[in-house]
Amino acid sequence: MHLWQATLPFCLLASAALPVAAASAWGFADATVAVQPKGAGINGGFKEQFTSSKPLSKPVAFAGSDTLRVILTAQEGSSAKRPHQAFLLLKDTQSGLDVSYPFMVKENGKSRVELTQKELPVQFLSLAEPLDARVVIGSFGSSEAYDSSVFKLSVERDPNVPLPTVETARFGKQPEIHHIFKDSPSNPPIIITLAFVAAVGATLPVLAGLWLFLGANLSHLPTALKSAPLPHIIFLGSLFAFEGVFFLYYTSWNLFQLLPAAAVVGVVAFVSGSRALGEVQGRRLAGLR
Amino acid sequence: MRWCLALFLCCFLAAVNALSSSGSRLLVVLDESTDKSLYSTLWSDLEGRGYDVSFKSPKSDKLSLFQHGERAYDHLLILPPKSKGLGPNLTPKNILDFLSKDGNIVLALSGKASTSSAISSLLLEIDIHLSNDRSAVVVDHFNYDTVSAAEKHDVLLLQRPGQLRSDVKAFFDGEGILALPRVAPQTLSSDSALVVPILQAPATAYAYNPKEEMPAAEDIEATGSQLNVVSAMQARNSARFTVLGSVEALEDKWFSASVKAPGGKTTPTVNREFAKQLTAWTFKETGVLKVGKIEHHLATDGEVAAEDLNPKIYRIKNETVFSIEISEYAYDKWVPFEVPGEDELQLEFTMLSPFHRLALEPTSRTETSTVYSTQFVTPDQHGIFSFRINYKRPFLTNIEEKHEVTVRHFAHDEYPRSWAISGGWVWIAGLWSVIGGFLAFVIVWLYSAPAADKVKKTQ
Fold first, then answer.
1. Where's the OST48 N-terminal domain (chain B) (predicted)?
2. For chain A, what is the largest distance between any 2 Cα atoms, rounded to a whole number of angstroms?
3. pLDDT at residue A127 is higher than 60
4. In this predicted model, what pLDDT tens digit does every residue of B371-397 receive, in sequence order?
5. Set of chain A residues whose Cβ sits within 8 Å of the Cβ of B444
């Protein structure tokens, strides 16, 4: 390191003097990516070589119990060397989330990283698109650092195993809520209502017909009107007025309008009724009814 | 007359000092007076924006954040001390008390020396974490200044941050490159909604302790965008606490420096503008919301009479209009507040839990405010409800409004009449046929001659 620092000014000088032969660049060689399922032997599972210039074309499948292993030899220029930074960077291009896994680097540049799905952030477990796996190699000084996509990693999960969830509170808009109103009261079909109204209305003519059949008549009306005309008219009128008062109460009046009117009509009905009923009693005593 | 003069004076003073919405007394806690001249542009910028800047050493006996139990300053800017801690007057507890009394704080850190454990424990209180050994520095071999840090790569060159999320307003955006020398990185606790990153390190960045020759892989705690260069915490009382990882970025030297990224062009830094944005936000010159008039009334076609505004009582299923007027403070004046892109200002109509949660739409604007309103039907449930606005967003001061109203049931004379209900016609017909039958019976009983004769005759 000290030696390196001491030679740096010279290197800078040299690079300034020879811009074409600019500072060397970091890179790697002998790189393999392997996915080893649990229990499979050393050579079991997927294994493929890749180079720094050309990424793998097919995404690497990475299932629940697999171990992903990336092995490479870091190089500065063409000589193997230990860099300060050697990361396997996983990035979700959709959300921009990135996580780096440092390689275990030996003095001779041989680097190795292993990871399982347990080490991935939860957000990476449920992605539709494969992750972008990049190798980042860099160090101090003027050598150009290396950062490039080397393969795609598609994280596969057993659909029967539930995804671990993370509950994180973040301030933001919340889902809208619209109150669900109770159904407004409904009426039966109007035709049924009208049929029953007709049935109820028909009771009156039926009743009248039955009375007439049994011999109901108004033969005593002239007699009654002759002997006590005023009480009879007023009594009947007050009965009709009572129903009229109730009708008004039903449609528009309140209780305080009803009560005085009902009291007046009631007194009139009582007084005229006792006279009228006296006349009826007279007819009974005379043997007319 | 004197009263008039006093009022005039007050207005005048308000106009002069109106720059921050929450006071102008700024205390800078600074280790030695020799440091002060390094940041002269920052001080003159702050004074130019109306701050009343005073400087104190953390060791000073006279330094006290409170006087007679009240805040002695409105804002606090703490530069990293050279000594072990911040002294007996600036304990984490005192600083948190200052925060809970609505004081705003900018805390600058430096990666040059390890951060004191007092500061680390203060930051722990607000869910901001420093690295374990408190002496990490962020390096990035892709975004460093080739002019000043060609070897060590510890002067980060970053774009100014844009929107944190698509529904959050950007207060620190703009063109240009920031130079951040020797950043002490922070990581944020993921389960606090109060802490937000302002500026994150690039994906290829990492932190290491420069005292160690080579970091072992297991020593690297966080990398990439999980490292924060600048982070902030806005407390529930809207007091703001900003942590700036690199105090050197505020120096005059970096305000006017020219930097060059690897393979890039030489560009001047925009540290000065960013420092302005950062201090302006923390000291409540930006991102401050104010609620003006709140009105609610029954929906009508024309103008609403004054006596019909904000009634105490509504009926169920009433068509109701709610409106709220909101202003935002922008450096020196109140401007109409616009809800950022995908965000919504939401009204809740609640009784224990929300029955309605609706988006408020801007309906009109005045010179200083926007009126947001919505119309809805009160639920078919009577009780004590409240109109609630609970608008808490990163970088904006909190709005919490609660206005209670009674929602009553239908009164006895507000139901539809029985003849309007077709299902009731059968009963109405029954009633009147009974009345008719009774009257007919009375007439027949009074005037009918006995029919017995006829029966006898037929016999």
1. 25-282
2. 152
3. yes
4. 999 999 999 999 999 999 999 999 999
5. 211, 216, 218
Neighbours of B179 (CB within 10 A): 29
pTM, entire model:
0.82
Interchain pair A168, B191: CB under 8 A: yes
Instruction: Catalogue the E-assigned strands of B21-145.
Output: 25-29, 52-56, 66-67, 70-71, 75-78, 104-108, 128-130, 137-139
Nearest chain A Cα to B417, which residue? A251
End-to-end CA distance of chain B: 118
Architecture of domain B14-284: 3-Layer(aba) Sandwich (3.40)
Check the CA dihedral B343-B349-B351-B354 and report its sign.
negative
Mention every residue, 6+ apart, whose C-beta is less than 8 A from residue A85: A102, A136, A137, A138, A139, A145, B139, B141, B204, B206
Specify whether the CB–CB gap between B444 and A214 falls below 8 A.
Answer: no
- Give chain A's domain count: 3
Q: What's the mean pLDDT in A113-126?
A: 85
Residue B377: closest CA among A231, A184, A264, A99: A184
Cβ-Cβ contacts under 8 Å, B190 against chain A: 166, 168
Same domain for A64 and A91: yes
> A105 contacts in B (CB within 8 Å)?
217
A3-28 per-position pLDDT tens digit = 444 444 444 444 443 333 346 888 88
Residue B5: both structure tokens together: 């003069």
Distance, in angstroms, between A202 CA and closest chain B CA?
Answer: 9
| pLDDT top residue among A196 and A50 | A196
Apex A113 CA angle, A110 and A114, nearest 5: 140
CA distance A18 to chain B (A): 16
**Every domain of chain B and the residues it spans:** 14-284, 287-408, 427-458
Are the C-beta atoms of A11 and A23 separated by less than 8 Å?
Answer: yes
Find chain A residues with C-beta within 8 A of B217's C-beta.
Answer: 102-105, 113
Say if the Cβ atoms of A174 and B357 lie within 8 Å: yes
**How many other CB atoms are there within 10 angstroms of residue A59's CB atom?**
15
Let me know whether A35 and A80 are in one domain: yes
pLDDT at position B456 over 90: no
Per the structure block, which two tokens stand in for B452?
A: 């017995």
Residues A122 and A225 in one domain: no
Q: Give yes or no for a contact between B275 and B246, defined as CB atoms under 8 angstroms apart.
A: no
Q: How many CA atoms lie within 13 A of A75 on its CB side?
A: 12
A74 shares its domain with A100: yes
Going B221 to B225 to B231 to B237, the CA torsion angle's sign is negative
Q: Are residues A30 and A136 both part of a single domain? A: yes
At B316-373, the pLDDT tens digits run: 999 999 999 999 999 889 999 999 888 999 999 999 999 999 999 999 999 999 999 9
Residues A200 and A128 in one domain: no
The predicted structure's pLDDT at residue A11: 41
pLDDT on residue B345: 94
Determine, for residues B190 and A166 on separate chains, whether the beta-carbon distance falls below 8 Å. Answer: yes
Q: Are strands B319-330 and B313-315 parallel, antiparallel or unpaired?
A: unpaired
B-chain residue closest to A233, CA distance: B443
- The nearest alpha carbon in chain B to A206 belongs to B437
B11 vs B35, higher pLDDT: B35
Chain B: nearest CA to A204, how far in angstroms? 6
| Contacts with B225 from chain A: Cβ below 8 Å | 96-98
**Range(s) of the domain holding residue A198:** 188-217
**Residues A67 and A150 occupy one common structural domain:** yes
CB pair distance less than 8 Å for B153 and A216: no
Highest mean pLDDT among A120-134, A259-273, B218-232: A259-273
CATH number of B287-408: 2.60.40.1930
